[in-house]
Every structure is written in C-alpha cells, then in structure tokens.
Amino acid sequence: MDQDKIYIGIAVLISFTYFFIFLKNFKGILSIHSKWTRFISLSILNASYTWLLFFFFLKSYQLVSFEQYFSTLGLLSLVFLFILFHLCAVYLYNITAKETITNHFFTCVIVSIGIIVCFTFNIKLLNRNVTFDKSELALAGIILIISLFLSTRLMKLIYNDLIKNEKTISTGFLALSAFMISHAFIGSCLEVIGSISIINENHSSIIEIISILILLLITASYSEKQYIEKNQELFTSNNHLNFLAYHDTLTELPNRRKVIEVMNEWIEKNTKFAVFFIDLDHFKHVNDLLGHEVGDKLLVHISKQLNLTISKSDIVGRLGGDEFIILKAFNLNDELTQFSSELIAKVTNPVIIEGHTLNVTTSIGVACFPENGLTVKQLMKKADIAMYCSKDQGRNTFFFYTSEIDHNIVRKIKLKEDLKYALARQELEIHYQPKYVAKTQEVIGFEALLRWYHPSIGYISPLEFIPIAEETGSIIEIGNWVLENSCQDIYELNKESSNNYSISVNVSIKQMAQTNFVETVKSALSKTNIPPSKLELEITESMAMEDISKTSNVFLRLRELGIQISIDDFGTGYSSFSYLKELHIQKLKIDKSFIQELEINNQNKPIVSAIISMARDLGLKITAEGVETSDQLTLLQTMDCDEVQGFYLSKPQPLQSIKETLNKQLSIQK
Ligand code: C2E
Ligand code: CA
Ligand code: CA
Predict the structure, then answer these.
(1) How high does pLDDT run on average in the chain?
(2) In testing the pocket of ligand 1, which one of 464, 625, 653 has its CB within 8 Å of the most ligand atoms?
C-alpha cells in the first residue's frame, strides 16, 4: 500500500481517537475545580493531539523522519504548541464570560496567527531551505481564521450541548462534526501551508478546502440557529422563573429573599441605611369581614402607596401577609422621622375598594445599619421589635429601635408566649386575701388573687401579666379557671372550718363580653356548691365604664342570680357617680391609693368620707382596700366603712396557709 495513504489513515485514526477521548472526558475536564489544572489538562490534550497529527501529515508528505521529529527541536515544537494551547484556553475561558460572536471571531484571529507562526516555525526547523511567500501565508491565515472560527463555533455549540446534557444533537452527528472539525482544522492549515511551494502540488487541491469549508458553514450555521432558538426559550423561561423567585406574585414587589439579598449587598458596601418594618393594623378584620379579594386589593393598593413614598434608590418589599419592608439609604436621622410620618400619612389615606371605604392604619418599626445591627438577621429582629412597640403603644405610629424598648418588648413577647402554656404547666396559683368587717375585724370572705411563678423569671405580678392575658385573649380561659377553682377552694374551706365565707373574684371585661359569661358563672357555682350570694365579682371602674349599657345588662342578669357585684379601684376611673345607679351593683371598693395616705394626706380624707356617704345614699356597701396601718383602720372605722382589706390585717396567702391559720384560731377557741 502507498505509504502516504497509511500515514493519512493513521492521522485520521488519531483524529477519531482524540475526539472520542475528548468528547467523552470534556465534561470531566471542565468540572475540574482548579482553574489552572483545567487549563493545563485541556492544553496537554490539544497540544499532544495536534503535534502527533502534524507529524503524520508531515510524514505523509515525506517531509520528516521519526528521528527528526522526536529530536530536541521537534519536542520543542510540542512545548510551543502546549504553551499556545494553554494561552488559547485561558483566553477563551476569559472571553466566555462576555461571550459574543465578535469576541469569538477575535479569538480565532489571535489563535490563527499563533498557529501559522507555530507551523511555519516548525517547518523551518525541519527544513531550513524553505521560503515562504507572504501573500500565500496571508491566504493561509485567512482560510485558517475562517475554518477555525467555523469549527470552534460548532465545537462550542456541541460543548454547550454536552454541558447542559441535553441530547438535541445526536451522538452520531457529534462524531461526524468532530471528525470534520479536526480534519478541517488541521487539514486546511496543512493544505494551505503545504501549498507553499514545498509540497507536491498535486497532493492537495483548493476545491477540497472549499468543500470542507462549505460543509462546516452549513453544519455550524444550522447548529447556531438551533442553539439560539433553544437559548431564547431558556432565557425567557429563566427570566420568568427568576422573577417568580424574587418577587411576590400578588403585589409584584420584591420578596423576602430579594430584600435580604439587597440588604446583604448594602451591608457589604457599608451603606448607611434604615430598615422599616411596616405592618398593617387589624388587617385580619378586612379579610374576615370583607373577604380575601378585598384584602388582596388592599395589599396591592398599599404596595403602590409605599412605592409612591420612596425615592429611586430605596427598596419596598413584601415579607408576607400584611407585612412590608422598606430599605432606605440615609444621611441624617431627621430624614427618617419625616419619612416615617409620610409613610403613615400615605397608608392611612382612606381608600374605596369594591364599594367599601377602608381606613387602614399601620404600625412601623425602624432599625438602622450599622447602629442597631451588623447583620440582616439582627436588623430584621430589631425593626420587628420596634414595630411591635408601635403595636403595643396603640398602633398607627412608628418607633425607632432602642435598647430600652428592646428590653421591655422582648420580655413582653416572652411572657405572651409563655402565658399560653402557664395554665397547662401548672405555673398559675391562686392566693387568698382575707376581707374583714371594719368594726369587728372578723373575716367575712376572701379575694382570689392570681399568682404566676415563671420557671425562669420567677414571680410575675398580675399587674404585668393580666393585661397581656387580656390582649391575647387567654384571660378567658385563665379567668374561668380562677373562678371555678376559687369557688372550689372556698367551698372546701367552708366545709372544713364550718364557716360561710364569701369569695371575691376579679373579672376582666373581656370575660364579661363573652356571650356565655353568665352561664359560665352559673356552672362554676353549681359545680362547686357555692351559693350565689357568697360569690362576689369585682370589675374595675374603668372597665365597667367602657360600654355601660352592655355591662349593666350583664350585671342585671348576674344580680338576678343573686351574685354580688362590686366596682374595683373606685375613684381612679371616671368617678362619675351618676352611672352607678344604672349598673345594678352592690359594692364599691375604694382604691388603695386613697387609703394609703389617709393619715398624712389631708385631701384624701374628705374624698374617702364623701365616697362613703354617697355610697350610703345609693344603698351601696363600701370596702376599703390597701389598709396598711392601724391608724388607717381606725380612721376607716370612724368613717363608717363596711369592710376592710389590706396588708395590716393579712397579706394574700396560699390556700394551705389560710387553712393553717384558721385551724390555729379554731384550736385557740377550743
Ligand atoms: P386588685 O383587684 O385591686 O387587687 C388588690 C391588689 O392590692 C392585689 O395586688 C393585692 O395583693 C394588693 N394589696 C392588698 N392589700 C394591700 C396593701 O395593704 N397594700 C398594698 N400596697 N397592696 C395591697 P395583686 O395581687 O398584685 O393584683 C394586682 C391586680 O391584678 C389586682 O388588683 C387585679 O386587678 C388583678 N388581678 C389579680 N388576680 C386577677 C384575676 O384572677 N383576674 C383578673 N381579671 N385580674 C386579677
Ligand atoms: Ca380586686
Ligand atoms: Ca383594687
């Protein structure tokens, strides 16, 4: 067989093997973590392939011998190729970041010049007598650039396909293209350079080159078209997915994820900014009363209002539900106060939605970077605390985070949470404070006073936790528990000591507002065998005044059952005597603030005696609470007060110690 043909055959075989190895391992090479190892692997593969192929082509032209090619000079050309490919790999890698057709073409120009230099250099090394015609070299360069561009373009498309692992181009087509690329790439170089007078002129023909180029052009442009179409689809669906991932579907505002990203960016850049937590007040009512559709429309309206308030550099986002957030870069703190007022004004602007006029209000909390926190988590938490403070202070206002509000609010949040489980965890206990006949100091009954022993905080005053229980609504469950258990305790106490003590229970207006309140009281009485006349319900003056007609209605029904009702903390509320008649009550408890300074404060004496004489006229009984000294007791006795209660006579105590005291008294009497 013709030796030339064998060498060409070997060259083709190498080409196949190379592309087989290359395509099989390309993904693996690309996934090598270290950038340099990746480039070097690519370069070794490419350089050794080209070098070997080059050898066989030269051999087929009978230009070199083994000894020549594998000499120091030949090996040097391998090193040269390696460096060249390495540079190309780095360069190609760098431009893939800004991958455009122009960039790609420009790379091919550079690589082609490199290859021409390399090849002519190599041929010169092998045969010093060779001279190159400049115009032929230029033609070789142009053909090389075109073939390189087309083949690498095709390669790129195949790689992209491989990387994405989507089989849009079949493996057979891949192999075919790979062969054509290799052939065109190397072949056209050699053909052109070969045509430079040193090679047998019959060996190659320009037609061969042109046909290869046309074939390449067709396959490359076909693949390019497919690639662009597919990419565009991907691009639009990607964009859509991106939008969904970073935006809230209802309001189209950036979502929590996006806001956190921006916050992180601003923190990184060390931008001074404020985080506004914006929570609508009573949004649940809108949803519950007018339906979710109205609720949704309101949220969209609010998001637009917020967008109108901010400047271009600020960000409004929706965190979920009725919670919004604004990130605002600022210079002076005064700007923020002004901005908060504007926000409130914008949100509280009445709006008509589906025929309903809605007057929404909002509570806002503000935290600043870097003063209040250095991380997203800290800033969010502090803005939330400040917002909570706004809610706590009656809503429709804004607060800036400070460590003082933090302490109070954090404690309140904790108590709120823990109070939910206090009953179940048996942390609540009832203490009893005896009540006495003022004249004789004989015990006539007890007031039930709730105690909470928190496992980690310790004793918490009812003055602190009762308002929280009222806020959260747990007062209903807790209040019923107190009612039933105190009745039960007093029933037992009465049975053991053969007495007939009464029991006073404090009730909250929240309990009384329950439609089944009277039934609850009835059932507590019947369960515990306490006669209605021995149960006294205490309600504070301010609470009773909240809705007089409703209160008096409930009071009337309770009174019809025979239950006693007394107004607690009398004198601290509206102090209007006219309503007392309407309320169907039997007793007034003068607030301890009047009693405590009875001996020293001359103003208190006439007030207390006026209250007592007025109560007489209305047929009401009077209890004085907070009696702490014997002087106070004596004064109250002379003023004709009916009942007294206070530390001077006895502090509130657990049932057990009340029982023990009673037993002692009983044994003394015996
Ligand atoms: P209150 O109904 O006015 O109860 C009287 C408060 O005065 C009690 O405080 C009692 O310990 C205290 N006290 C009694 N004698 C004296 C005295 O001589 N000097 C002074 N300085 N104080 C005296 P406490 O137990 O801390 O309860 C505070 C408030 O918590 C109660 O005021 C009541 O409004 C509320 N509360 C307590 N238990 C319950 C309950 O079961 N339900 C409801 N709704 N409220 C309760
Ligand atoms: Ca009371
Ligand atoms: Ca009181």
Answers:
(1) 83
(2) 625
